[in-house]
Task: inverse folding
């Protein structure tokens, strides 16, 4: 980047709003994956106007801009593979309004999701999307990635809670999509197009969110299964009974083992699967009736069902699930956390196929996921210094994607395509649809300056990209 | 249209799939408004392939194509103002699949919404969106318009139930957007962009819908208010108490009077407002607790609360609400059924302003609406042969839009922009956003053949269009 452009940026953002020292830039060269690439500079705007000015300059100078929130991204979406400007929205972190009469919150993009949840809770309100990064990811990042979490079957993903937004186009214009109302058919659903667009179509500078009343009551149970198929059957039977629990989390055999090795709390390591189910709601009698109903269904199929009698017992049951990530981190230095999503009834088959693929390539695989909504996280553990292992990981990942698509599913339920899956986009989407998406990208970002090189396949195939991210 | 093109269409669609007689065309020249314009021909495809072939020819010949379902459209969206081809999707009317394990239905676009609801009910499942046209509008039309209904506050509008779709582009290519899974971040949310695009971006040829378990229990009550503000306060207090009822329907004074004149069932004609509230759910105890809670809140504010003790009493309460349309039709030959949506807390103020506007222009106005989600239908009754009255209707409509936007709302909650509101798009959306939407339209439909002249403002202003729809 030209020094004159850096100076122009500094004049807009002030000295604290622009980073150019290599040490500072390093922190913005990474995300939640193992990928890395250095930007030329980092801008930290504090207003929409600053965002618009930066985009205007970048568009004029043809410098790439990569927007970024908490950077817990798991698909490489915020890695600045072409250098240029990383735009961190973390200083735009105000909750602008909480309106309990209209069940609305208006926030800047840099608000940490958990902070918003805590604030609205004071009004008896709830913002349901809860990606596991909820403590450090931002609402802006969640919107850009259309983040999910544990409660999506019952409550839906981020897109279901966005009513409107202010955005800045790649050419530096400011607009507002959607609004403050829950029924709105004035023009196209532009806000929905921007949700999940991974920072490639616009920079989101303000978000109007729909809230719901906080469900006051919750009950949790854990079921242990000798056979994986029985866990799958249990999930189907709960659904068939007309029940949509708040969460239905599944851990496979190797996941149980890894967590037990980490926690030593006596988890059933001989079991093929564990299922954690939570019911919640606004009336105690209904939550009680629902969890008893689930208990009854599970008791027919599970080797053991453990219904938590109070909050602390429920907390204990959830501890195993929440320990998966730290437990996994102890096994191998690197992790490819996949994120396929299949129709719910295909979950056992998907898990079986993943296990077979891991065996075929002699890889350590730990599987957990959101069984209720079919979103499965097969985590392949590896050491990126082991060239042979890396090559086997790549082949296994490709076969996992293939299996998900064969079973009626897709590449990613909540992590996004970013860099890690762009080479596989054509597995899940037909050429017409990829063509339409590219046409939209080209029309809205004619100079291809906003987060270039993400989502769409290019010459650099997946098989090279994830392990060798230099400038392209 | 050239005779050779008609012949080419006939060879694709067969004799029963192409209409050219003026008598036949007449039925396709109108929709749910009072607008009319004749097409050159009507095609009735039975397959996606036929749809693609027609689009390909139309794109080559630069002939407009206006897709159409049940044509209950209330914004003129299916009026063929530029002649050309009307494409009726009503022969593609198969329910292709109902999958109770995955809570999914796959349908062709011509399936009547109510037929789908009845079919899935047999499996204990529910498809919630219920526009008042539900008995004759199609799923394809509902998706193209992002239709709403009474139950949107609790259950959400059509867009919340679409997982994926097959579509045909304006140039005749076939693609699939979205999928069969409830979490899907593979590429842009193209299916969401197409939902509510009013047939201007693609023809939807198959839809994959999310279903939910059917809520087995429901209770209904009616509250009568001496003052409109108390009805508004009641809605706010119900929300503040953490309750989201299945429906909260409001009728204003003139609406009560019109229905009473029609039904003669002793409605409270001295009251300023009536509120009809329905609770539903999966557990009887919870529904009972919720309706009692609502009853308690309303008893503090209403002159009278009437809780239906059984299904037939509930049915009786709903009869008044359902009689609004036939009752209104008796008063004047024409009706402008507006559809503004404001934040819930602004509903009383919005109704007051509408009443003042009607008084100012000496017009007969009947207001009802979905008070829970802020979607208000001010119906202006008039006679289109009365030139002076028509001119006052036009001025009043403009002021109603202005008021809705001033109160933080928008032009249309569920009817769409179509022809009737396109002149006002700039009231609700900024020029950047209209520009971005136009850019998308131009990029995906470079020859502007798919439902041209809809949504976006043009030279012919709203003030002429609705009452003089010739070829433009």
Result:
């Amino acid at each position: 980047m030209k020094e004159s452009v850096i100076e122009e940026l500094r004049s807009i953002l002030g000295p604290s709003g622009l980073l150019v020292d290599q040490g500072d830039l390093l922190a913005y060269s990474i995300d939640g994956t193992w990928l890395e690439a250095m930007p030329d500079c980092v801008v930290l705007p504090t207003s929409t106007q600053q965002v618009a000015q930066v985009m205007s300059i970048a568009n004029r100078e043809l410098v790439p801009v990569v927007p970024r929130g908490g950077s817990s991204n798991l698909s490489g979406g915020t890695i600045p593979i072409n250098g240029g400007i990383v735009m961190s929205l973390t200083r735009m972190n105000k909750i602008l309004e909480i309106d309990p009469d209209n069940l609305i919150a208006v926030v800047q993009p840099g608000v940490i999701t958990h902070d918003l949840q805590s604030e609205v809770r004071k009004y008896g309100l709830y913002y349901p999307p809860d990606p596991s990064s909820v403590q450090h990811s931002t609402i802006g990042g969640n919107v850009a990635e259309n983040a999910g979490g544990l409660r999506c079957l019952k409550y839906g993903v981020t897109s279901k809670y966005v009513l409107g937004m202010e955005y800045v186009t790649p050419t530096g214009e400011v607009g507002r999509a959607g609004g403050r109302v829950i029924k709105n058919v004035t023009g196209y659903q532009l806000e929905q197009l921007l949700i999940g667009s991974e920072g490639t179509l616009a920079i989101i500078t303000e978000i109007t969110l729909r809230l719901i009343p906080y469900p006051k009551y919750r009950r949790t149970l854990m079921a242990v299964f000798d056979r994986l198929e029985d866990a799958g059957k249990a999930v189907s039977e709960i659904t068939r009974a007309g029940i949509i629990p708040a969460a239905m989390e599944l851990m496979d055999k190797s996941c149980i083992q890894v967590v037990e090795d980490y926690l030593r709390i006596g988890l059933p390591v001989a079991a093929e699967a564990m299922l954690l189910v939570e019911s919640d709601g606004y009336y105690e009698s209904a939550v009680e009736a629902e969890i008893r109903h689930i208990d009854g269904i599970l008791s027919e199929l599970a080797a053991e069902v453990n219904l938590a009698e109070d909050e602390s017992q429920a907390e204990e049951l959830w501890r195993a699930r929440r320990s998966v990530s730290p437990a996994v981190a102890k096994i191998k230095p690197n992790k490819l956390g996949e994120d396929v999503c299949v129709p719910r009834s295909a979950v056992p088959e998907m898990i079986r196929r993943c296990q077979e693929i891991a065996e075929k390539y002699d890889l350590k695989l730990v599987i957990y996921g959101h069984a209720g909504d079919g979103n499965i996280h097969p985590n392949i553990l590896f050491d990126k210094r082991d060239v042979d292992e890396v090559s086997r990981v790549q082949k296994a990942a490709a076969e996992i994607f293939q299996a998900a698509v064969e079973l009626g599913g897709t590449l990613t339920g909540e992590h996004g395509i970013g860099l890690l899956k762009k080479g596989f986009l054509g597995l899940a989407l037909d050429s017409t649809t990829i063509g339409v998406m590219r046409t939209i990208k080209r029309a809205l970002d004619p100079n291809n300056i906003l987060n270039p090189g993400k989502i769409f396949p290019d010459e650099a195939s997946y098989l090279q990209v994830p392990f060798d991210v230099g400038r392209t």
